[in-house]
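Hello Y.,

Per our agreement to keep a running log of every chain we model this quarter, I'm adding this entry. I've kept the format consistent with earlier entries: sequence first, then predicted structure.
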Amino acid sequence: MKLNINNKPIDLDSLRKIASESIEVSIDQSVKDKVDLAFQQIQASINNNETVYGVNTGFGKLAKIRIENKDLEELQRNIVCSHAVGVGNFLPNKIVSLIIVLKIMALSKGLSGVCNNVIQRLCDLINHQIFPCIPAKGSVGASGDLAPLAHLSQVLIGEGYASFNGAIISAKEALKACSLEPLKLGPKEGLALLNGTQVSTAIAIMAYFELENLFQAGIYAGALTVDAIKGSQKPFDSRIHEARGHHGQKIVAKKLKYLLQDSEIMTSHNDCDRVQDPYSIRCQPQVMGACLDIMHHVSSTLVIEANAVTDNPLVFVDTEEIISGGNFHAEPIAFAADHLALAVAEIGSISERRCALLIDPQLSGLPAFLVKESGLNSGFMIPQVTAAALVSENKNLAYPASVDSIPTSANQEDHVSMATHAANRLLTMTQNLAYVIAIEYLSAAQGIDFHKPMNTSKKLQKIMQNIRAISDSLNNDRSLAPDIERLSSLIISGELCPPEHEIFSK
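Predicted structure for the entry above:
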């Protein structure tokens, strides 16, 4: 994908492409002109001997200390090196790539006061596929994602490490391999690189896109389970959902109805005496619809933040002012990530309940634990236990990160968002959810097999084929762990179900 930064807002579809494709970034000349004006204003403030935070002062609690002009370059280098104290595993390259793109977009608004060379060098990292090694832990989402962005910025000045051509090497080596010289940062440039919410935002965006795939998989899995237990499709009647009015609920009901139409299994029990199915079957539109509404809200927040300027201070050329504020505070992202966590937890919770229903002959009408010779075979007994364990873990992880705050920087930064923590935990949760849905798929497919020669709907038959390409029907006990792993990978990548991104656009 070729991405030209021209200050036009970027939408959800474009972010989805950036997050999933290799990209090449260029900067429009109109952007360069705007950036240059803000850079000149920073230089003018220095020439006029003005005191400007982060330009010729210390940082945070040290803001009252004036820095001499001869030390300004060292000041910016020092903030990058001193703040590069993140710990833990490195973020995946695809997330790092998105972080860099978001940082380019923010700096390109012409409100940060950096020179065009800084922005171009960030583009060079993307275009040469140099991915700074960014530890996942160390940010409280307060003055921006300081530590992780410092690790990114280190690479620009030839410090730290980067992933390049599949190996982790020194930043100096990576730059040299691409005939790039380390940058010398000018006034405010180190601060502008470190201030911002790009890390927490990028991680949340990536988790959101994974959840899109998981949500769709959850709908298909739920429909397959309805057919496996000979459940009713009457609860998906559009009139029920119009009577309540929630947008997501109406979409999910319509989709479930669509997926089950022309099912021979469904037709076979049209006149049965079953009055009502358990909640995990008949309340799917209400539960999954509420999750979809949350996703709609969160996606709006993420798009706004992706287009935002979140460093400090900001340069306003039209009035020749440099104003300190707090756009680096990541509360919107913390809230967004916390809302996503609720959706992830609930999609998994209702999926696990359907797994439990499938293995219970009193509720499903199917053989105990979905195997013919139960007793000799345990069948799907323990996969449901695994699903229960994963769901329980996700419930614990769903506790809001944003309600926590711990003062930093000698109480200068006395209220923080924990946005990066909130976003990071989503990646664990989405992986757990992928496993849960994989277990439901395998369980439901086993249930469908017991109804042969009757077939499920044509749409669900395609899903059945995809499942059976990975995992054969279970006649005798075997380890299903490899099948769960393979299936979960296809689910979270979006390869198992056809992408239907239009339902996520409001």
